[in-house]
Amino acid sequence: MLQKNGFRYCGIVHIPEDDDPRYAYEKVVRCGERYYLKNELLTRYHDEEWGKPEHDAQKLYEMFVLELFQAGVSWELLLRKRENFRSAFDNFDVEKIAAYGPEKIDALMQDPGIIRNRRKIEAAIGNARVVLKLREEFGSFSNYLWHFTENRSIPERMDAVTDQLSDDVSKDMKKRGIRFAGSVTVFSFLQAVGILYCHDPECLCFHRDHAETFAQNHYQPENRVSGGRNDR
Ligand SMILES: [Zn+2]
């Protein structure tokens, strides 16, 4: 992935040891070592998904459902059960989920592949119904979420728990009937989908996500003002 983007060496630092270049080595730098680098699954999640600005409405709904189910369990457990969730919840098709009735809820309560918690299952269904209303009002769930920041990713500290944005989004979501939308859950969700941008500037993901910006800021000789050293 890094090679494809042409930033092979971004996120890799050269560590000198005792000023003797023979013992120097290179280290891939990632943020969140405490949180995400415990094992390959979490590292892959950090590298490929967490914090990457996400605009796909279905994916955003999926992430919100996972955040909702996370209350009380580890993120790692959810990632391990993710494929089960996808097949149990019709690949997070919002329209299908919004139409789930009591029989489907009972079936989900019998499914050992997911987290069997009736309140959470009912919240996921109720939230899908609200998401359909948001689609009518804003065009998509994505438009709704990104309108809070006028489509910009807002830099935030990784180790924060809530902030003004998550408070505001939480308040608005609750007003609209979205459940499990406390500010802490919303903050974690906004981080995961890159509306709050929390990768450390030294992290390899920071370089990937800003590659486009860097590419746009390339040196353009035609704009060069005269008086440089070529005019000597
Ligand atoms: Zn990172």
Short précis:
With 232 residues, the chain is mainly alpha-helical. The chain has helices at 33-36, 40-48, 57-70, 75-88, 94-98, 102-109, 118-138, 141-147, 164-175, 183-192, 204-209, 211-216; strands at residues 12-15, 25-28, 154-155, 196-197. It folds into 2 domains: 1-51 and 201-213, no CATH class; 55-197, Orthogonal Bundle (Endonuclease III, domain 1).
Specify the helix fraction band: 40-55%
- Uncertain spans, ≥5 residues at pLDDT below 50? 1-10, 223-232
Number of helices: 12
The SSE string, one letter per element, is EEHHHHHHHHEHHEHH
User: Which hetero ligands occur in this complex?
Assistant: zinc ion
Shape: globular
Widest sheet: strand ordering: 1-2
DSSP strand (E) fraction? 5-15%
Q: N- to C-terminal separation?
A: 44 Å
Tell me the count of domains. 2
Rg over C-alpha atoms, rounded to the nearest angstrom: 22 Å
Structural class: mainly alpha
Number of strands: 4
Task: Please name the fourth-level CATH homologous superfamily of the largest domain.
Answer: Hypothetical protein, domain 2
**CATH architecture annotation name of the largest domain:** Orthogonal Bundle
Biggest sheet descriptor: 2 strands, antiparallel
CATH class identity of the largest domain: Mainly Alpha
Query: Taking all residues together, what is the mean pLDDT?
Result: 83
